[in-house]
Structures are given as structure tokens and as C-alpha cells.
Amino acid sequence: MKFESYRREYTAGGLTRDALDASPLRQFEQWLEQAVNAGLSDPTAMSLATRDADGSLWQRIVLLKGISNGGFVFYTNYRSNKAKAIAADPRVSLLFPWNELDRQVIVAGVAEKMSMTESARYFLSRPRESQIAAWASRQSRPVPARAALEAEMSRLKAQFAAGEVPVPDFWGGFRVVPQRVEFWQGGEHRLHDRFVYTRIDDESWEVEQLQP
User: Fold this and answer.
1) Radius of gyration (Cα) for the chain, nearest Å?
2) Is 211 annotated as contributing to ligand binding?
């Protein structure tokens, strides 16, 4: 199968400097709301790129669960490969691919662990089955077959049947505090609109337009 000739024009619209908010987080929230209203599938899905201790790069899709204290929030198993990579190098990148709107947002920032209080608050809001699944999965470790996971899930359902599912001490949130945020809007004839915010200090950002 050949891919060289596959292309389409981006006609969803342009992006101008005067249409941007002074804050990249507020601008992101506007775009996310538009993605949700457009009915996109999984508009909060984002690719998380990390670097392992040996310098190897990896990425995976995780779900954005909020924006708080100036950062993008997601939750995971703290024993997972992604958490180990963040412990080795907290610099990460996020990518939100909103293809149906000819848009993407790229974030470069530093990931920091959230407090146990914040993590517990979210954990207790999850469906019960998802809470139990957090206990059942030894994330990123080999498993002989899916049947082993299902058996562990059944065992834990019985174990926790009498009350609330406790919050695992190996599970919680990360907040990615952005240092650079790029907003990309596809344009006709590949003349895309790109604007990048670069952090100056805690409250202010420099905004530049980049060539496509």
C-alpha cells in the first residue's frame, strides 16, 4: 500500500493572533470545549511522551482528567513504566490530536505528583469496577493471559464486597505544568497557523507565530 499520494486540504478555518487568549490554559479550555461540542471521539485523549532512565523515548495515550493549579492532570499506577520514566526525567510532552477540527495542541512541561488528598478525591469518584481494576492490574508487568487478570478482578470484588474500595498507595495523579504550549490550526495549501506560548514567569507568557 502506498501512502505518498494520500492527502487532503485543511479547510476548517484559520487562527489569528488577536483571537488568542493571553493564557494558554484558557485558550486550551476554549479549544477543548469546541472539540467536545463538535462531538469528537475522546476529545480528552492525549499522547504522553516520556524519556526512560536510559534515554529511550516512549509514548502512550492517557486521558486528561482536569486542569488545576496551572497544569494538565492525569492519573496512573505509580509503579507503571510511565511513572518510572517520569521519576527519572519529569520533563514530558503532551499532544492533543483533534483531527476532525484540523487542530492539535502540543505541551512541553514538567510532571509532578499530585497530593494523596487530590488523588483520593478523584479515585473515590470513579466507578467501583474501575477502582477495583486499579488494584487488579500490576501495570506494565507481563501477564500469562487475560484470564489471570479476570481471576484477580473476581478475587478482589469478593475481597472488597463489604465496603468501600480503599485508595491504593501506588496509584495517583500527575500534574504537567506547561513551559511551552503550541496551538496548530491546519491551513489550505499546507500554510498552517502555528502559535507558541513560552512561559516567562508564573503569570505571564510570550506568544510567537511560527512558520508552518
Assistant:
1) 20
2) no
The residue segments making up the domain with residue 121 are: 10-125+169-209
Q: How many domains does the chain have?
A: 1
Give catalytic residue positions: 190
pTM above threshold 0.90:
yes
98 is in an annotated binding site: no
Residue 82 annotated as lining a ligand binding site: yes
pLDDT, one tens digit per residue, over 110-144 is 999 999 999 999 999 999 999 999 999 988 888 89
Other C-beta atoms lying within 10 Å of the C-beta of residue 181: 24
Task: Give the three cell numbers for residue 154.
Answer: 473476581
- For residue 98, the SS3 value is strand
Q: Which of 141, 119, 143, 142 is nearest to 131 (CA)?
A: 119
Tens digit of each residue's pLDDT (9 = 90 or more) over 60-105 = 999 999 999 999 999 999 999 999 999 999 999 999 999 999 999 9
Give SS3 for 161: coil
